[in-house]
Amino acid sequence: MKKILILFAVVGxxxxxxxxxxxxxxxxxxxxxxxxxxxKVNFNATASSDFYFNFKTRIYPGDVVLVYRYAGFSPTTNLxxxxxxxxxxxxxxxxxxxxxKFDFTQDNVRIYTEGLDLVANPIPADFRxxxxxxxxxxxxxxxxxxxxxxxxxxxxxxxxxxIKKYNIDDSNVQxxx
Length: 177
Known about the structure:
Elements: H1 2-17, E1 34-41, E2 50-54, E3 64-74, E4 79-84, E5 87-90, E6 96-104, E7 108-115, H2 125-128, E8 131-138, H3 159-165, E9 174-175
Parallel strand pairs: 1-9
Antiparallel strand pairs: 1-8, 2-7, 3-4, 3-8, 5-6, 6-7
């Protein structure tokens, strides 16, 4: 009797596990990361100053906002160099001179400079005029769409790893000015 029950159990599991039904509807598309580029940003040479960028739509509380400053072109890699904020600059003796920082809300991002004794030691023109920034918004814990956490996190300090990790088309960066 036991052998017959085991046989029916094995046959039943085989039959039910091989059943196939119609394919369900496709799910909602996953959230996409947005990249914005802001050009021609100018800061004050002798005092802390800031620049605001307003998002066109609200971002969610769990979203990650990263800001990068264009730091030049590398002929060895043939790529633009993007430095993540905060980005501090020091005198040759190791003392703090000035830095770029940012903060954000659900509506905007503020990029600003801070420095020590900027009246006596102004920020050089090539670090404060015509600056270019890229703002990357990575979807996080959206109350409408939930995303799984990744075991393979990108190195956020490396702009190119971030765009690769989140499948961002670098040629479609939204230029804002």
